[in-house]
Amino acid sequence: MRLPHGPTAAGVTLLAVLTGSACAREPAAAAAPPPVVTPTPVRDHTAFIAAVEALAADSLRLGPIAGLSIAVSARGETVLARGYGSADLEGGVPAGPETSYPVASVSKMFTSALILRLAEQGRLGLDDPLSRFFPDARPRIGALTLRHLLDHTSGLTRGGPAPRSAALSVLKRGGTAHAQGEAWDYSNYNYSLLGLVIEHVTGRDYAAFVRDDLLAPLGLTGTGYCEDGTMVPGRARDYLSGGRRLSPTPYWTKAHFFAAGGLCSTAVDLVRWSQALEDGRVIGPAMLREMRTPARVPGALEADYGLGTRMGSTAGRRKLGHTGGGQGNKAVLARYPDEDLTIVVLLNTERANAAVTATDIEERIARLFFASTTAAPAPDVVPPDARRFAGEYRAGVQRVRFASDPHALTVLDARRRAGARYVPQGGDVFVQSDDPSVELRFQVRGDQVDGYRRYRNGWFAGMALRAPESAPVKAAP
After folding, report:
1. Where are the domains of the chain?
2. pTM exceeds 0.85 for this model
3. Which of 426, 430, 428, 410 lies closest to 418 in space, CA to CA?
């Protein structure tokens, strides 16, 4: 019997004997030394954790904030997962890593993922118009594609609440402020309309579908649709901060945002969610790239926003994720992909124009982490001549006019009165003088200024295009 594609068995035996005899006559080779395995050093995060603890204590006091939760994961390992203050002041319940908070617009990441999964399944296409699902929609609305809704280039401009009932009304009676794809303008209506699409395609309630198709399979037990008053395990009580007083608010138990912001979650669940995206357990690599590809608008300028994913940078490191709030910023999920770092900060307290926000805390935590591990990149310290950036810019339906001197840009109102002042930092970056968390990053091609992107705490927050033939504007006297 022959061995497949080889010599006879006897031949093999003979060859083995001959080979063995030959080897016996050769001097024995020295055994190779075992490879030296250098263990990966365990990074000591003691100083970093102590600094975050101090930051959390200061935030509770300065807010004032009833409670907050923070989770930090680096290279797949939990560095920190703790709660501070109270989840329920009246009930004496402390905040913890499993405390569940309304996460507002962080919900957009989940809604986007559902749409992208349905696209992977061939049940819809990202460039399908709304009219495919709602034939009776007003033509201007029916022409909007799912992609325009996902990346906020639909032309819908209203940024406040967008409950399910209002989204249904938009289908019949809505309009857009400008043509689709013309500009980037954040609107909760984009995602409430996507929620209606999910319900239409699946034949299921949005809240039930997100629970059964995403949350349960991933084991996100502290996450769920909650703005209708549905209780989620570990749910915190919500507060408004006024002066030095904290008062309970029912704001997050009433319909405001539907698929644009109706979920509650925990700090540790959002870390798990971020890791599930990385591991391909939510959508495949192609759709994940779509999710994180900046939106394009005319004028060679990109919005630093993908499909339900806000982007930006802190300390020279790029980050992506989302922020959320209703009456002030209260939630942020930040992933630094190049460092494999995830930071989540959730608050149960809001305040208009708050001195302490979730995004402020996140940015400070990131800087603490980077300072404790590696040196930050050296910044470009050459300040630009501010005069080249003066002129008029279009931010959606608004106009922004900058006057300048060689050292700063000043926003002018309709009566040419001076407002916010921006000072150059290096490169083409300007920071608001009285609020350094606000930053303008101009895009320049050769001698041409295309526009700028605006960031807060490192997160993309808006953009503006240079108006045609915009001439420099002299500073107001």
Report:
1. 42-377, 386-474
2. yes
3. 410
